[in-house]
Amino acid sequence: MAEQSDASPFGPVAAQWMESWRAMLGTGAGISESWSNSMLPFIMKRAAESGFGMAAGNDLAEAIERMAGGPRLADVLDFDRKLASVAVAWSELQSKLAAYHVVAARPWMRAAEQYNARRPQPGGAEPNAGWREQLGAWNQLANEELIANQRTEDFLVAQKQLLQAATEFRARQSDIADTIAAVLGVPTQRDFDDVTRQLTELRREMRALERRIGTSGEPPPRGDA
Amino acid sequence: MSSQTPNKGAAGGFADMTDKLLKAGKLLSDIKDRDVDVGATPKKLVMRRDKVELFRYEPLTEQKVRTPVLLAYGLIGRYTMADLQEDRSLVRSLLSQGLDLWLIDWGQPTRTERWLTIDDYVDDYIHAAVERVCRETGHDRITLLGICEGGVFTTCYAALHPDKVKGLVLTITPIDFHADRDDPDTHHGFLNLWTRSLDGADVDRLVDTYGGLPGEFMSSVFSLMTPMRSLTKYNIDLIDVIDDEARLMNFLRMEKWLADRPAHPGEAAKQWLKDLYQENRLVNGTFTLSGRKVDLRAISAPTLNVFALDDHIIPPTCSKALGALIGTKDYTEIPLPGGHVGLFVSSKSQGRLSKGIAEWLAARD
After folding, report:
1. Residue A57 lies in a domain
2. Using CA atoms, how far apart are residues B329 and B346, in angstroms rounded to an integer?
3. ipTM score of the complex?
């Protein structure tokens, strides 16, 4: 694959602004990430659970209260880190989208140049075609240019990077949704995937067993095999 | 659409367009969803396994080919392409030629089907359907008719279960996923090129994030392949058919089929994109299902391979490659004019496809 292009489609000022914004988000996310990746949140959480050593005694009641009350300091910071990472992913997505549009716009310009070059000049020998004929000619020209462009390395790289950025953004959003679901006691996407995986594997085992003992030859009830 | 005279000018043309757009809006608001019926040929549900259903079509004439034929579409799009409307239906045409036709419908996979693999589709769903058809009809072998990805599934089944397959009919089926490089037409094979431009990790991340290959995502990739057609569909093309009720209903049925694009089950999508599109394992002999290598030389059933000469999605070279790899000596190709979808739904191809299949089957019944 070709290397990623660094050229900003919006010019140097916009590029500088976008870079500053990304750096700011990156720094914020970096701080949160350092915090989250360290043992501090774990210890803070454990300490908070025991009332920071100030309120020992009624552990069960406090645990029940915590379960009802949701996250505390460490969780909040972790959530903050996840929000920041969504913002970074969004910024990256916008950047890749802009880069994609630059590459995707090239064939339109080439088609326009060619179309203008081919148009009959006013006062020329060729009569002007109707608008449908002109539109047809334009469509054909643009179609060829667009298809040719899609096969270029620039286009494929831009599209690949856009897909990567969009997927990353979606994955970060899912992280947020899972975090909120966990706080509310609602099954997360991951929980759902785990359940469906177990279900699929169970079915496979059951059907393999059926075949081994030869029961699959029995005609099951119609419409509910 | 009335033809435009050269001197009518852009303003007159624009006024015509506006009038027709208004008319289109009114007409479309009067047509109900139930009026646009696709996949309407009568059929009876015989078996359900998870979301997969096995149907038997009601005969339209006296049975002329005794061996049952099981039709399998792929997981990208739905089988209704083969039964779009009464006068453009491979299903009806085959029934009219006296075939005992069965259908395996994959239903509407969602994230729940994320973990299903091609192994499950071939060795479980198709195998269960074949066994059921055999049991219902008293045959010990049947004919498989695969379309596109469904053709790959049936090819794999024929290689892994040769004792169950009397005949194999493939339509617009990719076998050599890298043979697009041998197709000189630059309009062909973008899907192959695009898939190879991705890393395996991109496919994994996409599938793991969405739990499958979203239908709308695949739709957008297909739209890219015919860029101007995609841009003019809902304005120029729609206006062109608005005065003709039959053409308008054709247009709407096609739109309904295009919109009915369920998500491709996740793990099966990884195999489809990575094992086959990227690594070309079917041709390399390294594609394994349920722990067994799929060896195309193990296909002993007579095989008919039908492909479209202007197929931009599955280049004809990708389909034709089967001839050099398959085990059977009874191998026939029918190249037909038209594109990937046009082969099934265009008025030009109606009859040619079904007649070719029915005659080939009758000769081997």
Report:
1. no
2. 32
3. 0.89
Cβ-based neighbours of A194, under 8 Å, separated by 6 or more: none
Residue B4 binned pLDDT confidence (cut-offs 50, 70, 90): very low
CB B128 within 8 A of CB A216: yes
Q: How many structural domains compose chain A?
A: 1
Q: Is residue A109 part of a domain?
A: yes
Catalytic residues of B: 148
User: Are A131 and B111 inside 8 Å of each other by CB?
Assistant: no
Return the closest-CA partner of residue A203 out of B123, B153, B129: B123
Residues 245-274 of B with CB under 8 A from A: none
CB contact under 8 A, B10 and A163: no
- Answer yes or no: are the C-beta atoms of B292 and B160 closer than 8 Å: yes
Assess whether pLDDT exceeds 70 at residue B254: yes
* % of chain B residues with pLDDT over 70: 97
Domain contains B323:
yes
| CATH code of residue B236 | 3.40.50.1820
- The residues with which B288 forms a beta bridge, in sequence order, are B293
Strands (E), chain B: 43-49, 52-57, 69-72, 83-85, 88-89, 101-105, 142-147, 165-171, 212-213, 264-265, 288-289, 292-293, 303-308, 331-336
Q: What residues 184-203 of chain A have any CB closer than 8 A to a CB of chain B?
A: 189, 192-193, 196-197, 200-201, 203
Please check whether residue B312 touches A, CB under 8 A. no
Interface membership of B124 toward A (CB under 8 Å): yes
DSSP bridge partners of B305 = B170, B333
Say yes or no: A130 contacts chain B, CB-CB below 8 A.
yes
Closest chain A CA to residue B7 = A130
Listed by number, the residues of chain A in 11-70 with a beta carbon closer than 8 Å to a beta carbon of chain B are: none
The pLDDT value given to residue A60: 59
User: B115, B183, B313: which to substitute to probe chain A, counting the most A Cβ within 10 Å?
Assistant: B115
Q: Which of B13, B187, B198 sits opposite A131 (nearest CB)?
A: B13
Name the token pair of A112. 């326009």
Fill in the DSSP letter of residue B69.
Answer: E
Among B9, B205, B236, the residue with its CB nearest the CB of A167 is: B205
- pLDDT band at residue B23 under the 50/70/90 scheme: confident
Tokens at B93, concatenated: 């045409």
Question: What is the Cα–Cα distance from A142 to A145, expressed in whole angstroms?
Answer: 5
Interface of B with A in 171-230 (CB under 8 A): 186-187, 190, 193-194, 197-199, 202, 205-206, 209-211, 224-229
CA distance linking residue B50 with residue A203, whole number of Å: 10
Which range marks the domain in which residue B274 is found? 33-363
Under DSSP, the state recorded for B285 is: T
3-state secondary structure (DSSP) of residue B84: strand
pLDDT digit string (tens) for B259-318? 899 999 999 999 999 999 999 999 999 999 999 999 999 999 999 999 999 999 999 999
- B13, part of any domain: no
User: What is the C-alpha to C-alpha distance for residues A150 and B224, in angstroms, rounded to an integer?
Assistant: 8
